[in-house]
């Protein structure tokens, strides 16, 4: 495999219309940040597989079918007979930003156990990707730690996107502790502007990155996504910032960060993880920004990732 990801796979209910009675009509979109990353990478021609748990219910089977449809391997997908598939209801604001209400206490993704981990998948992949939602509770936290240790021992590149969802943590101190552990294990860190400010307590991104490197010197590349301000790639040999592609027909930002992350991992798979030149960093960020921009014009993410030709056309245009 090129990339194996572990984490949450769930249904994102998004507002799609208003009924004749004035009620919101919700569409059941396949979702979950790790699988959004895999879906974009699969579109770009990479082999991918997912490790996680869904309920043995109508939504769990819908999600399994969606993964197969887009070409993500399901060897590591487990079904729970007792706990239902996790659900998220997404409210989209006029500017495209979102608010989440989760039905996950518990949800099947939290029930992934150490014994459910497909070790061979992790040992035989080039990149292992994960987020912090698989560290909010047990047993999935221990399963995540086991997977990370296997990846480390196997010399696999580890990619981490904290993807903070405050309502899913008992306290923000718990979140900070587990995200800190994730940072101590990763080679590539993708973090949003508000997350790095929250985690480091510093407003300036350059200062925040320096603070991260003081505590986590083994991180080889830090990517800060800044929404309408673009993105920045930091490595020990310097940083590059690339402005975004602003779309007039943006409808929501669901999956934009995941699509950006996939664009970066695509570049790493093609070029290896090393100290990139300024031009290489610029090319990587331009591609990732363009991909993320396109997904903001579509409802949902996992099933509607852009084609490479679509991304190239936006860049060249």
Core attributes:
single chain, 317 residues, nine-stranded mixed beta sheet
How would you sum up this structure, described in words?
- Helix content is 38%, strand content 25%.
- By secondary structure, the protein is of the alpha/beta class.
- The strands form two sheets. It has a nine-stranded mixed β-sheet with strand order 5-4-1-8-9-10-11-12-13, with helices on both faces. A four-stranded mixed β-sheet has the order 3-2-6-7.
- Helix 1 crosses helix 8 (256-271), helix 6 (193-200) packs across helix 7 and helix 9 packs across helix 10 (308-316).
- The mean pLDDT is 94.
Count the DSSP helices.
10
Derived from helix and strand composition plus strand pairing, the structural class reads: alpha/beta
Q: Output the strand order for the largest sheet.
A: 5-4-1-8-9-10-11-12-13
> Which stretches are poorly predicted, pLDDT < 50 over at least 5 residues?
none
Radius of gyration: 18 Å
Helix content: 25-40%
Biggest beta sheet summary = 9 strands, mixed
- Please state roughly what percent of the residues sit in beta strands, choosing from under 5%, 5-15%, 15-25%, 25-35%, 35-45% or over 45%: 15-25%
Which of globular, elongated, flat, extended, rod-shaped describes the shape?
globular
Mean pLDDT across all residues, rounded? 94
């Amino acid at each position: 495999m090129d990339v194996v990801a572990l984490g949450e796979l769930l249904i994102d209910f998004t507002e799609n219309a208003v009924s004749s009675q004035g009620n919101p009509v919700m569409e059941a979109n396949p979702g979950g940040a790790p699988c959004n990353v895999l879906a974009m990478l699969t579109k770009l021609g990479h082999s991918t597989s997912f490790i996680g748990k869904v309920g043995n219910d109508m939504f769990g089977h819908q999600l399994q079918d969606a993964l197969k449809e887009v070409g993500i391997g399901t060897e590591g997908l487990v079904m729970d007979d007792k706990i239902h598939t996790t659900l998220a209801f997404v409210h989209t604001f006029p500017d495209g930003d979102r608010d989440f209400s989760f039905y996950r206490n518990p949800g099947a993704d939290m029930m992934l156990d150490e014994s459910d981990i497909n070790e061979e998948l992790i040992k035989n992949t080039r990149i292992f990707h994960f987020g912090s939602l698989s560290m909010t509770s047990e047993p999935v936290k221990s399963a995540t730690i086991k997977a990370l240790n296997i990846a480390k021992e196997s010399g696999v590149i580890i990619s981490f996107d904290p993807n903070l969802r405050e309502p899913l943590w008992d306290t923000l101190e718990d979140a900070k502790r587990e995200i800190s552990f994730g940072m101590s294990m990763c080679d590539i860190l993708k973090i949003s502007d508000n997350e790095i400010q929250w985690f480091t307590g510093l407003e300036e991104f350059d200062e925040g990155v320096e603070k991260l490197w003081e505590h986590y010197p083994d991180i080889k590349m830090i990517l800060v996504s800044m929404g309408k301000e673009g993105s920045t790639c930091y490595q020990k040999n310097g940083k590059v910032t690339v402005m975004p592609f602003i779309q007039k027909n943006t409808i929501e930002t669901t999956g934009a960060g995941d699509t950006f992350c996939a664009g970066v991992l695509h570049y790493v798979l093609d070029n290896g993880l090393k100290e990139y030149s300024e031009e290489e960093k610029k090319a990587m960020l331009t591609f990732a920004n363009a991909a993320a921009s396109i997904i903001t014009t579509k409802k949902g993410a996992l099933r509607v990732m852009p084609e490479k030709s679509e991304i190239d056309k936006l860049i060249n245009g």
